[in-house]
Description:
Chain B is mainly α and about 350 residues long. Chain B has 14 helices and four strands. In chain B, strands 1-2 form a two-stranded antiparallel sheet.
Amino acid sequence: MSDIAAGLFGVLTLGCSLGVVFSRNVIMSAFYLILSFFGLAALYVLIQAPFLAVIQVLIYTGAIVVLFVFVVMLIDQDKLLEVVTGKTLVLTAGVLAWSLGLILLRALNHSPMAVPVSGQLPTLRTISLSLFTEYLWPFEVLSVFMLVIIVGVFVLARDKVNA
Amino acid sequence: MNTVDIAILVAKTLLFYLIVLHVVPIMVWVERRGAALIQDRPGPNRVGPFGLLQPVADFVKFIFKEDPIPTGANRGLFLVAPALILIPASLTLAVLPFGDKVKLFGREILLQVADLDIAILYVLAIGSLGIYGILFGGWASGNKFSLMGALRASSQVISYEIPLGLAAVGAVAVYGTFSLREIALAQDGLWFGWLPRWGIFLQPVGFWLFFIASFAETNRLPFDLPETEAELVAGYHTEYGSMKFGMFMMAEYMNLTTISGVMVTLFFGGWHLPFVADAMLLKWIGSQNLLGLVQVVIFLTKVAIFLCVFVWVRWTVPRFRFDQLMRITWGRLIPLGIVNLLVTAGVMLWLGGWK
Amino acid sequence: MTVSFLTNWVHYLVAALFSVGLLGFLIRKNALVILMSIELMLNAVNLYVAKVSLALHSGAGLVLVVFAITVAAAEVAVGLAIILNLYRAKRSVDVDMFTGLKG
Amino acid sequence: MENYIPVLLLLGFAIIVASSILVLSWWLGPKKPLAVKLSAYECGVNAEGSPHAPFASKFYLVAVMFLLVDVEAAFFFPWALVYKESLQLGPILFVALVIYVAIFALGLFYIIKKDCLRLR
């Protein structure tokens, strides 16, 4: 059952990520990105990290891609049709990506995963508690970082004509 | 898991899905009759007694209509958009606790599609996917008013997601769990012998926030900016006809049902009768299975009351302007939600735990 | 162990997803799609970190992924703001158009 | 994880219902396309200009501020989950919340004060 689901959502994620890369129309890329991230969220559930699945859907699918779609809609559609990249470039890039994927796969498969583990699988509660005790300072620094980003984005994105 | 388990699972899922699907035609009738009642006119009364079969007639008419795809439309996205809004609307009902549990075939069956330990987050996360139906629907129509409506609708929906989440956070902090089932279980019985143990008495501000934000989340008046007929033709679904338009309507009513269900569970005791503890009810009724049925009825009654409130508000309150709407959420609701959270945390700290 | 059934699945998926992201990064000229490809690569890495963390029965990796997602959100916000500014300046999102810094 | 099987089932049902409605509606409806019928409906007036003309960046600002605030607000959820039981550990989570909310409120104050959402 789990294997079937893993296969299903794995194929969905991968197929849709190919869709992102090869769609001529940017809005279709954004659409495939949604499905791809949704599939990834399902995979997070399958590797027993439901909290990450929810965060993935809530933040990635529900907010980040919304921003992408907004920007696509704010830009005139005619400007989005791109010049086709040269065949040699595509071929070289394909070979490069393919070989890097193989190297990566080999590295992942040979990484020492068989280390002895102790204790229970982390639960939602232990993760949450460690976020506010063990990782309290990174967490607070992150909030300052977000504050900086809010200011920075506003400075970058405001309408210069009206401001 | 054997075949019986799987069969029970499938049957249960299908049953609850069908219950929520059947809210749609009932709500169509309630909405039209309610509007008529408030506006002092008869409303649909020709098809069946009290016009009760009107939704059926509507459905038949919808499905036999031509559904044109405009020339300027992006065909693929235009067709997918209604499904994109209907599927998340269907998925969110998975965590609604309709009742406690029943014993059938020697198994304990929870009266809930799935008892997830992240239920509240699940509702918020899946609910946030609904805006893609709006965005793509408006964009793919190839109509500038649709696109404008879509952008407005999605700005509104995303802005009100934050107060909705903050209101839910308050309730989660009080109960210490994400599971809607556990939250409902914690609301059994009375405080001081006379006050129902309902969430609204612990989180009155949280409830108010959730209530207001839920109007905006479901695009109902007074927050139905996306559909301002006078300015935007009909909003993001202008170009949709036939049952494709019907799907947008179905999704709206299903979202209403889910959000009412969440509200009932978080703030109004879920499946519990006020003033009567479950144990007492069980003694009167005598059978766990019958009690389960009664609980489902109680839960659905509470949801129905909220649905009626939604209809009532829709036909009595005028709509906000776009800037007012944004100012309400960013300037009022979000700060209020944060203050509510701080006060909740402070009071809990002061009382040294909630027991 | 409950996570073991996916061990190899996840490896293949992560490698493939990362490569697809890289491919998109290399062959597309549209700045928006390039940013999307970066997101794909980032997600591949996130998935792997989460998986390793769970295989080691540790919550550290999961917290790291949550932080990474947060930073990714900030990165996208700034990245898209820059793209929008470039679009305002050049009326295009084609990366070949942005050669103003070429010597 | 077994808890999620019904969700998968529900997803299946939802996809079946949605696609069957789409197919039925297409199959049962009459098909008499006319150029006028298929043109964009703008209150009966002929449509003018590109339907995908660029819009004000007001909407972009709303979306980006939503993204950032939503990400920050998402951290309240794990906090709320463990707050009740962490009270035994003393007020550490309360202090964490107060610092976090102070910084969060600063960001929100900036958004409102600087009129980032172009409300005025």
